[in-house]
């Protein structure tokens, strides 16, 4: 792909050939955050621009805060893979993807750099403004693909982004004892829990059976919104935090 003019004022361009047109007239309504999970930022940038990889993202944010745009926002980057949110399954056509340089499990999930997060916030604000992306539509890769992905992981500072005006967040309910639901449980309360997860956007079945898909949905929810304890068990803290998020959803306006 030839060089293009960046959509973000502070981004340099490193064009990737791995993209295509957005399908069925779809426009970006979701913003998906990833970590690279590779040894270096240079290796990740090279991989995202390699035709053999068949992956890409619109942006890559290095540890020093340097932002690289690899696919124009008007095009469909290949970052989401098999995924879903609120019933939408072609997430690549309806999203912007940002890869954030972090080794993830290769180095036992290191902290994200402060200058890097500052750059991510600045980048997200521009994307949100250009495309009218709603706060609750700023998501983790693990939110849209809980069976396959865990990035950007429980160390990603979602509250910092929220305080800066990016994303949706509530203070998690404290972890404590009480009633809980876990793998193998069945009944109307499990169905009610699944319904709440689905209303928020998670692709879980609503069948009253706490199976593996529901457990994975809870794990993804906890990574994003209740990272103190990520165990796939729907304890009181998890359920109350989900209630709070649903209650705090911004009101839709015409």
Q: Would you spell out the secondary-structure blueprint of this structure?
A:
Layout: E1 11-13, E2 19-21, E3 30-35, H1 41-48, E4 59-61, E5 67-69, E6 75-77, E7 95-100, H2 114-131, E8 138-140, H3 141-144, H4 158-163, H5 188-200, H6 212-225, H7 236-247
Parallel strand pairs: 1-5, 3-7, 3-8, 4-7
Antiparallel strand pairs: 2-6, 4-5
Helix pairs in contact: 5-7
Describe this structure in words.
With 254 residues, the chain is an alpha/beta fold. Helix content is 30%, strand content 12%. The chain has seven helices and eight strands, in the order βββαββββαβααααα. The chain has helices spanning 41-48, 114-131, 141-144, 158-163, 188-200, 212-225, 236-247; strands at 11-13, 19-21, 30-35, 59-61, 67-69, 75-77, 95-100, 138-140. The chain has a six-stranded mixed β-sheet. A two-stranded antiparallel sheet has the order 2-6. The protein is globular and about 55 Å long. The model has no long low-confidence stretch (mean pLDDT 96).
């Amino acid at each position: 792909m030839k060089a293009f003019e960046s959509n973000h004022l502070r981004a340099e361009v490193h064009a990737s050939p791995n993209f295509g047109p957005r399908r069925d007239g779809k426009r970006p309504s979701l913003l998906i955050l990833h970590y690279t999970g590779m040894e270096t930022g240079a290796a990740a940038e090279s991989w995202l621009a390699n035709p053999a990889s068949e992956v890409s993202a619109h942006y890559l944010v290095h540890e020093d805060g340097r932002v690289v745009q690899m696919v124009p926002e008007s095009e469909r980057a290949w970052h989401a893979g098999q995924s879903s949110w609120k019933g939408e399954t072609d997430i690549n056509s309806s999203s912007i993807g940002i890869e954030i340089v972090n080794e993830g499990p290769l180095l036992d999930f290191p902290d994200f750099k402060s200058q890097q997060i500052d750059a991510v916030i600045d980048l997200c604000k521009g994307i949100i403004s250009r495309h009218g992306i709603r706060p609750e539509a700023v998501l983790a890769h693990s939110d849209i693909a809980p069976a396959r992905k865990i990035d950007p992981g429980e160390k990603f500072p979602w509250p910092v982004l929220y305080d800066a005006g990016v994303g949706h967040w509530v203070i998690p309910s404290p972890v404590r004892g009480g009633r809980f639901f876990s793998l193998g449980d069945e009944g109307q309360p499990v169905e009610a829990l699944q319904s709440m997860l689905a209303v928020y956007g998670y692709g879980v079945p609503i069948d009253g059976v706490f199976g593996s898909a529901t457990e994975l949905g809870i794990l993804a929810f906890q990574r994003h919104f209740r990272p103190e304890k990520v165990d796939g068990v729907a304890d009181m803290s998890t359920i109350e935090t989900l209630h709070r998020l649903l209650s705090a959803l911004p009101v839709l306006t015409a």
